[in-house]
């Protein structure tokens, strides 16, 4: 096929509160080219504050989630432009991964196939990750003569115990879906024909919750990891107080009232009803 237009490198649909976003270069196993990186940032920007989007799911068209960076368009072609070309391409990729790490809505990686190298950037950026049993995960950088850059080494070390991360990076062998789940790269691996259903189920549970509270909570989980205990205590007090200000629905008072006064739910067993007082 002729080269795909930039606008067609990412597809999305919003259905019942869920934005289903896809890497859309199946003929290139969804490897990330500068065009795709630019388009993905546009799509993320378009969806982030929409009232009809509560959860964003990132998956891939065809047999891959993402085969990592595009060796031709991201590496070879940009290197030909000198350092300026390389740095520019890196910024375009890292920018959307960072946007996704701190996204306003909860994000779920739905890994439907190959996930290599640079793909670990967006994998880590997503708050939750589910994969199909036949997905394959690899730091293949070692197999073609580079180290796992673009954050991939950091992702392996953040998500896996050190010995496993080292083996994964040095050997360049792939992990199956269940192996990736056991290693901590994803939350769960399920049979391919159940992946969409399982992710929809998780998304529905998230949609029932207060998105301001979800945003504060996901940021807290990412931030406190590198804080001392005392700093984390302080940060969490301030984050809650900021949430009290931002949450115009006053969720915590609704939650308290529904439990303590109305006795319509128990927080230990379910979530409060955000649609009633
Ligand atoms: N960069 C550039 N082109 C790619 C990439 C990539 N990362 N991955 C796949 N393609 C292209 C292939 O060159 C091929 O193009 P062509 O049709 O013009 O020849 C097309 O996508 C289909 O790829 P195949 O290899 O034919 O597909 P297959 O299903 O047999 O294999 C697999 C899939 C295993 C993903 C294989 O394509 C592969 O090994 N890709 C590279 C994976 C990788 O190491 N990525 C880089 C990680 S390191 C980093 O991201 C920094």
Q: Would you give the CATH topology of the largest domain?
A: 2-enoyl-CoA Hydratase, Chain A, domain 1
Span between termini: 55 Å
> How would you classify the helix and strand content by structural class?
alpha/beta
Shape: globular
Query: Radius of gyration over alpha carbons?
Result: 20 Å
**Spatial ordering of strands, largest sheet:** 1-2-3-5-7-10
Given the structure, what is the number of helices?
A: 11
Give, in order, the helices and strands: EEHEEHHEEHEEHHEHEHHHH
Bound molecules: acetyl coenzyme *A
Query: Hey, roughly how much beta strand do the residues contain?
Result: 15-25%
Q: Tell me about the largest β-sheet.
A: 6 strands, mixed
CATH superfamily of the largest domain: 2-enoyl-CoA Hydratase, Chain A, domain 1
Q: What is the second-level CATH architecture of the largest domain?
A: Alpha-Beta Complex
Task: Give average pLDDT, whole number.
Answer: 97
Total beta strand runs: 10
* Number of separate domains: 2
Parts with pLDDT < 50 across at least 5 consecutive residues: none
Q: Class of the largest domain in CATH?
A: Alpha Beta
Proportion in helices: 40-55%
Describe, in plain words, how this protein is organized in 3D.
Helix content is 47%, strand content 16%. It is an alpha/beta fold and 277 residues long. It folds into 2 domains: 6-207, 2-enoyl-CoA Hydratase, Chain A, domain 1, CATH 3.90.226.10; 211-260. The strands form 2 sheets. Strands 1-2-3-5-7-10 form a 6-stranded mixed beta sheet, sandwiched between helices. Strands 4-6-8-9 form a 4-stranded mixed beta sheet. Strand 2, helix 1 (34-48) and strand 3 form a beta-alpha-beta unit. Helix 1 (34-48) runs parallel beside helix 3 (83-101) and helix 5 (152-159) packs antiparallel against helix 6. The structure holds acetyl coenzyme *A. Acetyl coenzyme *A (ACO) binds at residues 28-29, 31, 63-64, 67-72, 114, 116-118, 140-141, 150.
């Amino acid at each position: 096929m002729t080269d795909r237009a930039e606008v067609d490198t990412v597809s999305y649909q919003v259905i019942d509160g869920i934005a289903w976003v896809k890497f859309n270069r199946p003929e290139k196993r969804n490897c990330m080219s500068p065009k795709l990186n630019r388009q993905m940032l546009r799509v993320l920007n378009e969806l982030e504050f929409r009232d009809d989007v509560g959860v964003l799911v990132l998956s891939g068209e065809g047999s891959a989630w993402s085969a990592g960076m595009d060796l031709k368009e991201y590496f070879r072609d940009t290197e030909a432009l000198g350092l300026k070309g390389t740095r520019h391409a890196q910024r375009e990729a890292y920018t959307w991964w960072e946007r996704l790490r701190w996204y306003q809505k909860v994000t779920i990686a739905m890994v439907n196939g190959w996930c290599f190298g640079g793909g670990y950037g967006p994998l880590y950026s997503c708050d939750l990750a589910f994969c199909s049993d036949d997905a394959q995960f690899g730091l293949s950088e070692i197999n073609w003569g580079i180290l796992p850059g673009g954050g991939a080494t950091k992702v392996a070390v953040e998500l896996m115990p050190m010995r496993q991360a080292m083996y994964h990076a040095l050997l360049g062998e792939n992990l199956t879906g269940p192996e990736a789940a056991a290693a901590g790269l994803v939350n769960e691996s399920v049979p391919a024909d159940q992946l969409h259903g399982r992710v929809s189920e998780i998304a529905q549970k998230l949609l029932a919750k207060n998105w301001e509270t979800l945003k504060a909570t996901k940021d807290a989980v990412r931030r406190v990891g590198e804080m001392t205990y005392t700093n984390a205590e302080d940060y969490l007090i301030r984050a809650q107080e900021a949430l009290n200000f931002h949450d115009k629905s006053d969720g915590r008072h609704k939650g308290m009232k529904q439990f303590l006064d109305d006795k319509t739910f128990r927080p230990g067993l379910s979530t409060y009803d955000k649609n009633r007082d």
